[in-house]
Amino acid sequence: MKITVDFEECLKDSPRFRATIEEVEGDVCELESKLDKLVKLCIGMIDAGKAYNAANKQFVNGIRELAQQSTRDEVIESSLTKFAESLQEMINYHTILFDQAQRSIKTQLQTFVKDDLRKFKEAKKQFDKVSEEKEAALIKNAQAPRNKQHEVEEATNILTATRKCFRHIVLDYVLQINVLQSKRRSEILKSMLSFMYAHLTFFHQGYDLFSELQPLMKLLGGQLDQLVVDAAKEKRDMEQKHSTIQQKDFSNDDTKLEYNVDADNGIAMEGYLFKRASNAFKTWNRRWFSIQNNQLVYQKKFKDNPTVVVEDLRLCTVKHCEDIERRFCFEVVSPTKSCMMQADSEKLRQAWIKAVQNSIATAFRDKNDDGEKLDRKSSTSTGSLDSGGEPKERSLKGESALQKVLAIPGNTCCCDCGQPDPRWASINLGITLCIQCSGIHRSLGVHFSKVRSLTLDTWEPELLKLMCELGNGVINQIYEARREELGARKPNPGDPRLEVEAYIKAKYVDRRFVRRPSDEELRTKVVSLSKQEKRLSSSSEHLPPRPPPPTPKLRPGSNVSGQSVKSADSGIQNSADGSREMLANTPSNNSLADAEAAESPPMAMPATLPPPSPCKEIVFYEPKEYSPGLQLYWASCARSLPDMAEALAHGAEVNWVNTEDDKRTPLIMAVQGGSLVTCEFLLQNAANVNQQDAQGRGPLHHATMLGHTGQVCLFLKRGANQNAADIDEKTPLSIAVDAANADIVTLLRLAKMNEEMREAEGPYSQSGDETYQDIFQDFTHMASNDPDKLNRYQQYDPQRP
To answer: How far is it, in rounded angstroms, from Cα 793 to Cα 790?
Structure first.
């Protein structure tokens, strides 16, 4: 079994990493023993073969002598001479066979053992040594008394140096492990395959015996070249990743911990802490702590069963501890006991305290029944859970979102058990749920269902619109299409949780009740969607042009980077060339006011702009194969969310690549279709916002080229890389500047400045500048509720001078 070690995991030095290292070291030790044994056996076989050849040569010489003595009998002489020649040829074949064994088994495997395994052992020694030094430095740093500053500084400096050394050595060690694991397969297979081909040549008279094995050998021979190529490529990739990670700034290692309530493995946060024992000596021990399933637990080794510190986080509190000798201490107090813990730094202590507070708030929210209302503003621990702090003016929350979603037919009852008046929703499926089913959906993991409260959480306009586009009726027609046919009973309100959980897993995880389409049905569906897309494109191209409405204004007194930001409308009043020059010369860290202050001769704008022309005409070609991925591809362009949900239920990959159409993805086709909701649906289902097509263009590039301001706003909020360049070295900003699209330039500039501000403020900064939040919220609201106001610019034309 091929065992690889993750570079990111090794930097945590977690029990998982240690367990993997132990497994790798045992595997390599066993491999070395087996290879040494094989080489020794090969040497014995070669020596015995040489002795056999020597005796065989004497036998052949005896036959020749007998043939020479029988010159009077021509038959005997000719026969014995031919036999001697044949046997001599067999001796030559034996010699070639043993020479090949010498080269392929003994020499090659000995080289692999002496070179690669020796490097592994040397790396292991260095790793073991630096691990001990790091452990000693951590203990010394933890034991340094706060009142002796020189000892604190000395311990801190030693710990910093040791950590830096540990990072370099552990990365080198992991690289050596992964390279060895990648190389061992090709080395062993290449050696043995060469030896077996020597046997095939030698046993030419036993061809029938080897004919059954030959196809396998030929297959391995054909695969060997690819294995060597793959091993070399994998080695290059790992070396590149190793180099990239090594170049990162790890000066703030203790800030890497983050609280994630929706983590796939259920662990919201984990890391090392010192724990004070409850015995009389009050000893301190370093343990691996984690927050999972609303509990605080710790373990010494990865295979140990976790020890529960707090059974239910709702019943505990957390506080700083400044009245003891050790630094960075905090205490988690429950009604029955308390636990004193120590972090490695002040930042880590604050991170853990905040994580415990957030876990307490999350536990209350998850366990809260339908009728309860939590005042999220009154608790400091819940403030960070809201997407934007206090609810903004246009973000829907509470009864407003609930009324809109429940107005969709079928949404007034839980999608899975039929419980009336649901208060929860799965945002990537677009369904409403009761509290029991929502808990089961949350346990499935966010890759299956993302649960959100209809009354407690804040709802963005595009997300609310997505919920209104789908609904329980649409989803159940897909995920329960064969339920009655299979005789499966749908749960009722009040049924045991285990029965409901089994049904939900069968429905969404196993997709047992989904009706799989035939090839002809799938072909008909794809062709229909492609024609539907053409009708939509045709109708949109003949819409009458609209006059440009005003751009959303910034609030008076708001500023970015210390300067007041003006409206981007003034950029439209200049000529296209003047706008391009003005925007292109504006540095990314300056405010838009500097750009708009650039003087250029005014030019009157026409009352209307010509209708947009598509970047590339979308043409349907008969594909080589019809698949759910192709259905998702065309459904995304045709803006049909039910067909998109059906394709995902049939197993479509959300990041499916159409190799026959410039390697475009469904998300890029959703951009081409012009629908903000289809983009939101794909993103909620884990679409890659930065996946590029054959031209090197991601969704942000295409949205910018088409002038889809609402989509640009959405992709920036979801982490799109605005610095990515296509094969023409064009970034989204340069495209927007060339098209003189002031709205998109404004969004890209503000997103860039907000990112720079957050980096300057550190990892514990809030969501960014308030002006940035207000502007993005204005664009989000406009894109969802009044998109016509944003359709006022020409699309990007790469041929335009």
So the answer is: 8
Between CA 419 and CA 717 the distance in angstroms is 35
Which residue has tokens 């030693």?
158
Task: Give the integer Cα–Cα distance in Å for 290 and 296.
Answer: 6
Q: How far apart are the first and last CA of the chain?
A: 58
Kindly tell me the burial class for residue 621, based on how many C-beta atoms sit within 10 Å of its own C-beta (0-12, 13-18, 19 or more): exposed
Please choose, from the candidates 77, 39, 49, the residue with its C-alpha nearest in 3D space to the C-alpha of residue 187. 39
- Asked whether the whole model's pTM tops 0.70, one would answer no
pLDDT band at 547 (very low <50, low <70, confident <90, very high): very low
Rounded Cα–Cα distance for residues 119 and 125 (Å): 10
Please tell me the chain's helix, strand, coil percentages from 3-state DSSP, rounded to the nearest 5.
55, 10, 35
- Name which of 218-222, 680-684, 742-746, 788-792 the model is least confident about: 788-792
Check residue 263 and give its pLDDT.
62
pLDDT tier for residue 259 given thresholds of 50, 70 and 90: low
Residues 6+ apart with CB under 8 A from 206: none
CA 608 – CA 603 distance, rounded (Å): 14
Domain boundaries, the chain: 14-246, 254-367, 386-509, 520-543+580-790
Find the helix or strand (DSSP H, E) in which 424 lies.
strand 424-426
pLDDT by residue (tens digit) across 707-740? 888 889 899 988 898 889 999 899 999 998 888 8
For the CA atoms of 777, 778, 781, 784, the dihedral, rounded to the nearest 10 degrees, stands at -100
> Does domain 254-367 bear CATH number 2.30.29.30?
yes
- Answer yes or no: CATH 1.10.220.150 is held by domain 386-509: yes
Per-residue pLDDT tens digits for 119-147: 887 888 888 888 888 888 888 888 888 88
Q: What is the DSSP string of 32-48?
A: HHHHHHHHHHHHHHHHH
Q: List Cα–Cα distances, 227 to 190, 221, 230, 719, in angstroms.
A: 10, 10, 5, 36
Task: For tokens 């090197």, name the residue.
Answer: 696
Query: Per CATH, the architecture of 520-543+580-790 is what?
Result: Alpha Horseshoe (1.25)
**DSSP at 102:** I
Q: Domain 14-246 classified CATH 1.10.10.10?
A: no
Single out the residue of 416, 412, 413, 441 nearest to residue 426, CA to CA: 441
CB atoms inside a 10 Å sphere around CB 108: 19
Alpha-carbon gap, residue 240 to 358, rounded angstroms: 37
Residue 403 structure tokens? 């009324």
Give the chain's radius of gyration (CA, Å).
35
Exposed, middle or buried, 121 (CB in 10 Å: 0-12/13-18/19+)? middle
CA 753 to the chain's CA centroid: 26
On the 0-12 / 13-18 / 19+ scale of CB atoms within 10 A, 484 is: exposed
Tokens of 762: 């550190």
DSSP state for residue 383 in the 8-state scheme: G
> Strands 424-426, 451-453: parallel, antiparallel or unpaired by DSSP?
antiparallel
Predicted local distance difference test score (pLDDT) of residue 3: 65
Write a three-state SS string for 180-195. Answer: HHHHHHHHHHHHHHHH
- The β-bridge relationship of strands 431-433 and 458-459 is unpaired
Q: Give the H/E segment covering residue 779.
A: helix 770-785
Q: How far is CA 546 from CA 459, 606, 610, in A?
A: 30, 11, 9
Residues 6+ apart with CB under 8 A from 258: 269, 351
Nearest-angstrom CA–CA distance, 568 and 705: 18
Beta strands in 312-403 (DSSP E): 317-321, 329-333, 338-342, 396-397
Residue 82 has what DSSP assignment?
H
Condensed to tens digits (0 to 9), the pLDDT of residues 602-621 reads 333 333 333 333 445 566 66
